[in-house]
Amino acid sequence: MDMINLVIDGERVEVEKGTSVLDAAKKLNINIPTLCHMYMNNGKTRNCKGTCRVCVVEQEGKGKLIPSCSVEATEGMVIKTHSPRAIKARRTIVELLLSDHPNDCLQCERNGKCELQKIAADLGIRKNRFQGEISEYEIDRSSKVIVRDMDKCILCRRCVTMCNEVQKINVLTEIDRGFNSVVSTFFNEPLVDTNCTYCGQCVAVCPTGALSEERDYDKIWPLLDDKNKHVVVQVAPAVRVALGEEFNIEAGVNITPKMVAALKKMGFNGVYDTNFAADMTIMEEATEFIERFTKGENLPLMTSCCPAWVNFVENQYPENTRFLSSCKSPQQIFGAMAKTYLPKKLGIDSKDVVVVSIMPCTAKKYEANREEMAREGMKDVDIVITTREFSQMLKESGIDLKNLKDAEFDNPLGESTGAGSIFGTTGGVMEAALRTAYEWVTGETLENVDFKDVRGLKGIKETTISLNGKDVNIAVASSLGNARKIMDDIKEGKSKYHFVEIMACPGGCINGAGQPYSKCDTEIVKKRMECIYSVDSNKIIRKSHENPMIKQAYDEFFEKPNSHIAHELLHTHYRTK
After folding, report:
1. In the 8-state DSSP scheme, what is residue 327?
2. Residue 210 pLDDT > 80, yes or no?
3. What's the CATH number of domain 218-570, 1.25.40.10, 3.30.460.20, 3.90.1150.10, 3.40.50.1780?
4. Alpha-carbon distance 314 to 402, whole Å?
5. Which residue among 55, 263, 347, 393 has the highest number of C-beta atoms inside a 10 angstrom radius?
6. Where are the domains of the chain?
7. pTM, full prediction
8. Preceding peptide of 548 cis, ω within 30°
9. Which string of b and e fits 526-546 if b means at least 16 CB within 10 Å?
10. Does the annotation mark 367 as catalytic?
11. Catalytic annotation on 305?
């Protein structure tokens, strides 16, 4: 490994050859502000073309300032990161960005969490010296999932890199030139008319309010006051290991008991666990896999929990929708049960039930509105909000999350196993399914339930397990860029897999686009993942088929996995072009 030495702000530092000046400064804990720079895809992809110029520094012997994010450190280089000249240049650059930016911070979705706002404050900018024409674009709400307000675009191109290089969907690009330059869709089409999967990773990396999720939580407040409605809420596994970050709690802390207490305090009639529905998903999906594997038909079986991934297959590989599991996602399975099984248990009219979902994902909003997710005009899930929207509701309520007395989920849809909890991270669905499939096929007790080969943040993970002497080839992938590699192999007849799990977001739902903003910080994602596995390991029951409430639901209503009524309520079909 070739190493070089340089001096930054009077301190000598040794770094690997090829390291940027920005990263070299980080090694000395020197913070250089930047808007365009960002690492993604577990650090393998970098959005860094020196676009914003906010990170300029002064290099001794050079006549001009250099962008620290895109210039490599060289042997003997001497850098001043916060010289008067550099600070003045940064301030001017940010003032120019603000001169073509709406002055509506108090109404913006990113108020208080906007990176441009923070850098402007850090640079002491209190008024703008530059006045002139301001760009104006029509707000795109066509998808009812992602809102595009390009008046707030600063051309950092983070969203372009995420969409094109990581997710490889190629929906976003820079259009026009000069003052009219803006990031948009090809031919400036509304988002709904593109191949967007609504994964929302563009939203997750946008530093301003140019991209945001559709705000749906305002619909919930009047429902909580409606005495004629029975409003129930479900919470996804990834939400509870990230929500605390919105309240200055360290990343990767499980706050489930506090979260449940907060929801009950807000007035929901029932507070339930999506993990229960995840256990139900495994019952159906494991049964489906065993049947397909035994017959050698429609393989590989591909998981269907992630709606952005499903949308991706439907749009770009429609000939392969037959490989998708017919199981609905846990969100939709819960919704179907809350509108059928739950009213029977509680003695209420299903038409009075309103189902609210709290999800780490933007695509779940899209999923809930699919025609296939409704029966006789009644949707499985009525309202979907993100982790961020939920945190805003808590703040509006004035609820002190940290100091609430712990509470537990309600039943019968509130008891879950460790297998249900790991759905929140990449590889979790596969691991949960293998725990059940192994015992059902072999008739033996699985003593070690940890399938560690499918864990971790690697983009594509492979392993092989034996079921009664037959090898099962397995793949787990996160990010749609990695999904495309697997789908191309299937299309070309090169695939060796029997069972495949795909999550659209890098790292899985813990890094979903509705989670607290983290700039795809790998360390934060790792902490969330570790917490998910801690929840699993601390559970007494860690296999979905051993959940007593799941057994009860089949005994009382669904009969058995893949029964006629189970197929009617818990399974779906897919669109083909």
Report:
1. B
2. yes
3. 3.40.50.1780
4. 43
5. 55
6. 3-96, 135-214, 218-570
7. 0.94
8. no
9. bbbbebbbbbbeebebbbbbb
10. yes
11. yes
Confidence bin at 43 (pLDDT 50/70/90): low
- The pLDDT of 141-165, averaged and rounded, is 94
Is 424:509 a contact under the CB 8 Å cutoff? Answer: yes
Residue 485: both structure tokens together: 């590699």
The yes-or-no answer on residue 416 being catalytic is no
Catalytic-role residue among 58, 109, 245, 288: 288
- The one-character DSSP state at 235 is E
User: In this structure, which CATH number among 3.10.20.740, 3.30.70.250, 3.30.160.270, 3.40.640.10 belongs to the domain 3-96?
Assistant: 3.10.20.740
Rounded distance between C-alpha atoms, residue 506 and residue 425, angstroms? 10
CA 434 to chain CA mean position, Å:
24
Q: How many CB atoms neighbour CB 473 within 10 A?
A: 16
Element of type H or E holding 342: helix 341-346
- Rounded Cα distance, 325 and 499, in Å: 10
Phi and psi angles of residue 12, each rounded to the nearest 5 degrees, phi first: -85, 140
Q: Do domains 135-214 and 218-570 have the same CATH topology?
A: no
- Any idea which residue has 């990161």 for tokens? 81
Indicate whether 44 pLDDT > 70.
no
Is 364 catalytic? The answer is: yes
The token duo for 567 is 């197929």
Would strands 374-375 and 378-379 be described as parallel, antiparallel, or unpaired?
antiparallel
In this structure, CATH architecture of domain 135-214: 2-Layer Sandwich (3.30)
Which one from 367, 389, 431, 501 is the annotated catalytic residue? Answer: 367
- Report residue 37's pLDDT band, with 50, 70 and 90 as the boundaries: confident
Which neighbouring-strand residues pair with 378? 375
In the residue annotation, 509 being an active-site residue is answered as yes
Q: Which distant-in-sequence residues (6+ apart) come within 8 Å of 335 by Cβ?
A: 234, 355, 357, 368, 373, 379, 380, 381
Catalytic residue among 114, 156, 509, 531, which?
A: 509
Catalytic, 577? Answer no
